[in-house]
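R.M. (postdoc): so does anyone remember the format we settled on? I'll just put the structure tokens first.
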């Protein structure tokens, strides 16, 4: 019975992981927010994700109207560049 329960739990985790919405979608929507603080947090979240999609989203938004958001995006891209595939 325990094995069946464990198998069911693993299956659910894998199933929801495959069909769940990626984290990048929420951050991409947050980068469109009128609040610069929300946009800065989104840039930081994308830096933590460090996926190719996160890089694409950051590049699309690097010309933000707020200088603080521009700086956060610049730092996020640099952080990704230092630790991942862009070297």
């Amino acid at each position: 019975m325990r094995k069946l329960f464990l198998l069911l739990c693993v299956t659910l985790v894998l199933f929801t992981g495959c069909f769940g919405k990626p984290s990048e979608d929420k951050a991409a929507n947050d980068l469109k927010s009128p609040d610069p603080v929300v946009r800065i947090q989104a840039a930081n979240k994308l830096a933590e994700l460090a996926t190719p999609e996160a890089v694409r989203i950051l590049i699309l938004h690097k010309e933000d109207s707020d200088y603080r958001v521009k700086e956060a995006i610049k730092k996020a891209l640099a952080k990704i560049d230092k630790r991942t595939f862009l070297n």
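R.M.: ...and that's the designed sequence above, right after the tokens. Also worth knowing: The chain has a mean pLDDT of 83. The chain has five helices and no strands.
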